[in-house]
Amino acid sequence: MRRPRLVLALGGLVVLVAAAATNLVRLRGHQAAPPPPAAKIRAPEGVRVRVQVLNSTKTRGLARRATMLLRDRGFDVVEIGNIGQTRDTTLVLDLSGHPDWATRIAKLFGTTQVEVRHDSSRYLDIAVVLGSTWRPPAEPFYP
């Protein structure tokens, strides 16, 4: 009579320990994942921020995907292209002396370097040189 109760109690204990271990692994895995780009990062209201996007990788279409992301967030991408020099890390260049704008764009692309380079032509405000570590967000499926 005592043996079935003992087996039942041990079985319940095993189920509890397994559930706790599963939750612990989920929580640790969730914390280790990098946060996705915040949906609230947008271009400043009432200001036209002119951006150039350059692909420095061998991945075709990466500049186009970055352009779509920036335009969805209110930035005015006026020029896209490729450059021959390959980079690992994405580089955001502040060409107009607006570090806030460069920081906003850098947050969209995750791990980036931000540099200040003054441009006397005043045609561009920000230049983004895409590195091979940047992965574009998934495109939504519109049936």
What does this structure look like?
With 143 residues, the protein is of the alpha/beta class. It folds into 2 domains: 1-33; 50-130, Alpha-Beta Plaits (2-Layer Sandwich). 36% of the residues lie in helices and 20% in strands. It contains 3 helices and 5 strands, in the order H-E-H-E-E-H-E-E. It has a 5-stranded mixed sheet, covered by helices on one side. Strand 1, helix 2 (62-72) and strand 2 (76-82) form a beta-alpha-beta unit. The chain starts with a helix and ends in a 13-residue tail after the last strand. The model has no long low-confidence stretch (mean pLDDT 84).
Could you list some keywords that capture this structure?
2 domains, elongated, alpha/beta, 5 strands, Alpha-Beta Plaits, 143 residues
Low-confidence stretches: none
- Report the principal-axis shape: elongated
How many domain regions? Answer: 2
Helix content: 25-40%
Strand residue percentage: 15-25%
How much is the radius of gyration in Å? Answer: 24 Å
| SS summary, helix count | 3
Q: SSE layout and pairings?
A:
Layout: H1 2-32, E1 50-55, H2 62-72, E2 76-82, E3 90-94, H3 99-108, E4 112-116, E5 126-130
Parallel strand pairs: 1-2, 1-5, 3-4
Antiparallel strand pairs: 3-5
Quickly describe the structure.
With 143 residues, this protein is of the alpha/beta class. It has helices at 2-32, 62-72, 99-108, and strands at residues 50-55, 76-82, 90-94, 112-116, 126-130. It has a five-stranded mixed sheet with strand order 2-1-5-3-4, covered by helices on one side.
